[in-house]
Each structure stands twice: as C-alpha cells, then as structure tokens.
Design a protein that fits this description.
Elements (H helix, E strand, L loop, with lengths): L10 E4 L4 H13 L3 E5 L7 E2 L2 E4 L2 H8 L3 E4 L3 H14 L3 E4 L6 H11 L5 E3 L5 E4 L3 E4 L8 E8 L2 H13 L4 E6 L10 H10 L5 E7 L4 H12 L5 E6 L23 H10 L3 E2 L6 H9 L2
Parallel strand pairs: 1-2, 1-5, 2-4, 5-6, 6-7, 10-11, 10-12, 12-13, 13-14
Antiparallel strand pairs: 3-4, 8-9, 8-11
Family: Belongs to the succinate/malate CoA ligase alpha subunit family.
Keywords: Ligase, Nucleotide-binding, Tricarboxylic acid cycle
InterPro entries: Cit_synth/succinyl-CoA_lig_AS (IPR017440), Citrt_syn/SCS-alpha_CS (IPR033847), CoA-bd (IPR003781), CoA_lig_alpha (IPR005810), NAD(P)-bd_dom_sf (IPR036291), SUCC_ACL_C (IPR005811), Succinyl-CoA_synth-like (IPR016102)
Length: about 290
C-alpha cells in the first residue's frame, strides 16, 4: 500500500527541458516512474527524453491525463507554476524549488485551499513510493518496498532513515519530504495522518527539526487519535543556538517551544518513541516491529 503516489500515477515535469528538470526526469524514468510528459512554455509540440512537451499544464492534463506534477522552476516563477498545476486539476503537486519568496507562498497557500489538490514542498526532496514511483530527487536505490512510512523535513535524513529501515530488514511504503520552508503545502501532521490511516503502513518514522510547531501539532494529534501504530521520532538541531537559522529557512528557534529539546519532550509525552541520534532510527524501528 502507498499514500499519494504509486505505479499508476501519471507524472509530468514542469521545467522539463531545463538542466535540473532533464537530469531528475531522466532519473525518475529510469526508476520506473510513469512520466507521461513535461511542460516548458514555447516548446510545446516537441519531444524530450522520448516524452511529449506541452506549453501548459492544462494541455498535459487534457492530452495525457496527467494527475501528478513535479516542479523544477526557478524561484521567481515557481509560485505561478504551482497555481497553474492546481488550476489545471493536478491532484498531487511536488515543488522541489528552494528560495521561493515567503510572500509568494502566502498567495499560493491561499489559492490552493479551494482546489482539490495536495502540495508537497516547496524546498523538498519530493515523495517516493518504493519500487513504484519516484517523484523527486532522492536516491531511488536506497528505497525498498515495505511497511514503514517516513515523513521528514530533511532531505538527507529521509534517505538516511530509509537506508537504516531497509538494513534493519524492513522496507519503506512511502517517504514524504515535506520541505524546510516557513510555508509549505503538506504539514507533518497531515503526512502522519495519511500513514496512520493507511492499513498497510505498520510504523512511521517522523523526522523534524528546530523551528515552528509542526512536530508538536503532529504529536498532539497522534495522542488524541488513540492510534497504537508505533511512531519513531527524531528532531535535528539539538545544539542550535537560539535565533540562528540552521540550513532551512524555517529552522529557526523563535521561542522556548521551538527548540529540539522542547519538541522531543512533547513527542515523548504524546507516546512517540523519540531517539537522540539519527543513527538509532533503524534500531528503534526494528525493536518496535519485532515485539
């Protein structure tokens, strides 16, 4: 079982013919993802990587039935690309772009609320359903099919967690990199809800970082849900000084509740199995699932 994407997803690439779009679309196709085409304005009617190029997302939806889009568009144009995808009826929109102005994302967040779509990102590694569909920039070879879901703010820690879970003898159902910007589409809580509600995901790894309330909100929801599905949690940035942005634009400690220690305490109190080091993620998953 998977959440959001699978082998039947019909994927298009916005920014298809650019350097990043070309490279990662090639990797996605090689992984086995059902890439049905791409969008580059003014290049419609041509072919790229053996797939058709369209001028607009609406044209791609109409002609090849696209329902998932991944965006490799520069920051100045990325917000428009997200809204265009939402407007055209794309159900899952993955935005990889880093550095989109916060003011632009405020408009995007408001705009897509009335649309029937889910946004992953921006500033994220994407989403992958093991051995079925890779819609992102993650190293596909790390992910093997299984029953552990991963939700993470950090790209590299997503891959690290997947590698550990696989080496511990358990595979990954779906991994969602939600992105590290202050304003993102899908929150930690929303991603966690999908995994808790997925009958074939038996455990969840939840990786967060300093700054904001996303992990605390997810933990409180988890406790209130009464779910007994085990969640292994880790928070990056335990040594980060207050007031300093660490890596991601959203990773800044603004108050006492934004620190790694405060989040870890809340998660533990809400019944999650919190590890102090990312090196312990795989061991913790194995311990919980072998009980």
């Amino acid at each position: 079982m998977s959440v959001l994407v699978n082998k039947d997803s019909k994927v298009i690439v916005q920014g298809f013919t650019g350097n990043e779009g070309t490279f990662h679309a090639g990797q996605m196709i090689e992984y086995g993802t059902n890439v049905v085409g791409g969008v580059t304005p003014a290049k419609g009617g041509s072919e790229h990587l053996g797939k058709p190029v369209f001028n607009t997302v609406a044209e791609a939806v109409e002609k090849v039935g696209a329902n998932v889009s991944i965006i490799f568009v520069p920051p100045a144009f990325a917000a428009d690309a997200i809204m265009e995808a939402a407007d055209a009826g794309i159900k899952v929109i993955v935005c990889i772009t880093e550095g989109i102005p916060v003011a632009d994302m405020v408009k995007v967040k408001d705009y897509i609320q009335s649309k029937d779509c889910r946004l992953i990102g921006p500033n994220c590694p994407g989403i992958i359903t093991s051995e079925e569909a890779k819609i992102g920039i993650m190293p596909g070879f790390v992910f093997k099919k299984g029953k552990v879901g991963i939700v993470s703010k950090s790209g590299t820690l997503t891959y690290e967690a997947a590698d550990q879970v696989v080496k511990a003898g358990f595979g990954v159902s779906t991994a969602i990199g939600i992105g590290g910007d202050p304003i993102i589409g899908t929150t930690t809580k929303e991603a966690l809800q999908m995994f808790i509600n997925d009958p074939e995901t038996e455990a969840v790894v939840m990786i967060g970082e300093i700054g904001g309330q996303l992990e605390a909100d997810a933990a409180k929801w988890y406790k209130a849900s009464g779910s007994t599905k085990p969640v292994v949690g880790f928070i990056a940035g335990q040594t980060a000084p207050k007031g300093r942005t660490m890596g991601h634009a959203g990773a800044i400690v603004g108050g006492a509740d934004d620190t790694a220690q405060a989040k870890m305490k809340i998660m533990t109190e809400c019944g999650m199995h919190v590890v102090e080091s990312p090196a312990d993620i795989g061991l913790s998953v194995a311990k919980l699932l072998k009980k």
